[in-house]
Specification:
This protein is α+β, with helices and mostly antiparallel strands. The chain has a single domain, classed as CBS-domain, CATH 3.10.580. Helix content is 36%, strand content 16%. The protein has seven helices and four strands; from the N terminus they run ααββααααββα. The strands form two sheets. A two-stranded antiparallel sheet has the order 1-2. It has a two-stranded antiparallel ribbon with strand order 3-4. β3 and β4 form a beta hairpin. The two termini are 35 Å apart.
Length: 152
């Protein structure tokens, strides 16, 4: 397990990241969510990370409010990512230790974190599955796999 403490984001992240722009419509976002089955997309403008948009965010235009008791489907689908995204993004850099990533995921209750360089350009994403694989590799080097007993 000690190997896990040395693991960094850069060695475990997924470098190919699908992102959206602030100008994308909610309708386009719904199509992406259906095609990719992701829970969130980083929002990038001029090659910089400017936000994150989740499936929950994508429901915002359709929520009942005091000003609008019956949301209009067409209007909601035409809303932009800029209208619904979260701009308070928790991101990490490639040198961040996975233990810190784990802490941030638990604290902020997120499934993945964008990875940015020193200029805040999106260079990857680290997901909880990446962290779990690194933990599994670390444990596998210390303990042999468990072999179930055969029935006699």
């Amino acid at each position: 397990m000690y190997e896990f403490l040395e693991e960094t984001v850069g060695n475990n992240m997924t470098p190919a990241v699908r992102s959206v722009t602030p100008e994308a419509s909610v309708g386009e976002l719904y199509r992406l969510f259906a095609a990719d089955d992701f829970d969130a997309y980083p929002v990038v403008q001029d090659e910089k990370l400017v936000g994150i948009v989740s499936k929950l965010d994508a429901l915002k235009p359709f929520a009942f409010t005091e000003r609008q008791l019956i949301p209009h489907y067409k209007d909601g689908m035409e809303a932009t990512v800029d209208d619904i995204m979260s701009t308070n993004v928790v991101a990490v850099d490639p040198e961040t230790r996975l233990q810190r990533v784990l802490e941030l995921m638990i604290k902020h209750r997120v499934k993945s974190l964008p990875v940015v360089d020193q200029w805040q350009s999106l260079i990857g994403i680290i997901a909880r599955e990446d962290v779990m694989r690194a933990m599994d590799r670390s444990v596998s080097t210390q303990y042999p796999p468990v072999i179930p007993f055969a029935a006699a």
